Amino acid sequence: MLIKIYISLLTLSVAAMGFFTLYSWSWLGSIGSPAGAVAGYEYHAGASWPVLWLSASILLILANSILWVTGRLWPMWTTLLYFQIFVLIRAFWLDPTLLNIKNAAGIADSTFTVAPILAAILIIIAAAIVFFDQFLILRLKEKTYPAIEPEHIRNDADNAVSSPLEDKNPRSE
User: Fold this and answer.
1) Distance in angstroms (rounded) separating the CA atoms of residues 170 and 173
2) Which of 35, 56, 99, 128 measures 20 to 30 Å from 2, CA to CA?
3) What is the DSSP letter of 1?
4) Is the pLDDT confidence value at 32 over 80?
5) What number of other Cβ atoms are within 10 A of residue 2's Cβ?
6) How far apart are the first and last CA of the chain?
């Protein structure tokens, strides 16, 4: 059931971020004034960041629940992939397009944007968080529910260890 909820929320999150991404991009293709297009883009692209952070956080919390209950790791890494894709789209597609429009309109005179560098740093930090989170959840689950050996394996192991000692010391009887 948790996996179905996760997939539903992931689908809704991708749809919401897809909407914000395409709507922001449509502002960059506006035939109106460049200043108005830039303002519209910045408004909608700015609204997409909280949606991305909130949806990724909710998906990660749900992925933690799935990992705890079922032991499946793929939802955590899928959440990271979802986050990375939209950060990369913003840093390598939308922001350079915005910079080109600003340069063409004379609003900005820069040919360099730090968005790709910041995106790479953000992606590395997010990957480290997901990896540490996975490690933490697995360790907590291991400590909460320690692996218990079946009784017949434990008895066989005890007999195997005690048998050679009994054979070597016949005076103990």
Assistant:
1) 6
2) 128
3) -
4) no
5) 16
6) 60
Tell me which DSSP letter residue 106 carries: T
How far is residue 61 from each of residues 22, 39, 50, 66, 113, measured CA to CA in Å? Answer: 27, 34, 16, 9, 33
Q: What secondary structure letter does DSSP report for 171?
A: G
For residue 139, CA distances in Å to 83, 132, 142, 153 come to 25, 10, 5, 25
DSSP code, position 173: -
Q: Please state, in angstroms and as integers, the Cα–Cα distance from residue 40 to each residue in 43, 96, 102, 156, 169, following that order.
A: 5, 16, 13, 73, 89
Phi then psi for 69, rounded to 5 degrees?
-80, -45
Tens-place pLDDT, residues 141-166 = 999 888 776 666 656 555 555 555 55
* pTM recorded for the entire structure: 0.79
Q: Which amino acid is at 88?
A: L
Mean pLDDT of 70-88: 96
- CA 121, CA 123: separation in Å to the nearest integer? 5
